[in-house]
Amino acid sequence: MTKADIVDRISKGTGLTKIETEAVVEGFMTTVAEALKEGEHIELRGFGSFKVVRRAPRTARNPRTGEEVPVEARWAPVFDVSDLLREDVDEAVREERGAP
């Protein structure tokens, strides 16, 4: 699903125009990105949370050559899905796919 698909679904569900909906979606994405850049934690109850975590330095390996490559420590944005959403998705996918 692309941003355009999300805008289309929200527009149909809310009655807003696609232009208005796109502005809201873009505003949300910008707000989340700016907050993460400031190291803030964003929690959307029932959906999940966005946060920034520190990735420790490590040694990786180039799969072509096998050569070891040092990877520096870094800060990475992550999304942690809520238990409620995780359970809802699991149940819906199991029903759709008939998986155990």
Record the SSE blueprint.
Layout (H helix, E strand, L loop, with lengths): L2 H12 L3 H20 L4 E3 L3 E8 L2 E4 L6 E4 L2 E8 L1 H15 L3
Antiparallel strand pairs: 1-2, 2-5, 3-4
Keywords:
alpha+beta; three-stranded antiparallel beta sheet; 5 strands; HU Protein, Chain A; 2 domains; about 100 residues
Biggest sheet strand line-up: 1-2-5
The description of the largest β-sheet is: 3 strands, antiparallel
Quaternary structure state of the chains depicted? single chain
What's the total count of β strands? 5
> Shape, please?
extended
SS-based class: alpha+beta
> Which regions have little confidence, pLDDT < 50, spanning 5+ residues?
none
Report the sheet-strand fraction. Answer: 25-35%
Treating each run of at least 4 consecutive H or I residues as one helix, how many helices?
3
- Report the mean per-residue pLDDT as an integer: 95
The N- to C-terminal Cα distance equals 26 Å
CATH architectural label of the largest domain: Irregular
CATH topology of the largest domain: HU Protein, Chain A
CATH superfamily of the largest domain: IHF-like DNA-binding proteins
CATH class assignment of the largest domain: Few Secondary Structures
**How many domains, in number, for the residues?**
2
The portion of residues assigned to helices is 40-55%
What integer value in Å does the Rg equal? 19 Å
Tell me what the structure shows:
The protein has 100 residues and is α+β, with helices and mostly antiparallel strands. The protein has two domains: 1-40; 46-100, Irregular (HU Protein, Chain A), CATH 4.10.520.10. Helix content is 47%, strand content 27%. The chain has three helices and five strands. The chain has helices at residues 3-14, 18-37, 83-97; strands at residues 42-44, 48-55, 58-61, 68-71, 74-81. The protein has a three-stranded antiparallel beta sheet. β3 (58-61) and β4 form a beta hairpin. α1 (3-14) packs across α2. The mean pLDDT is 95.
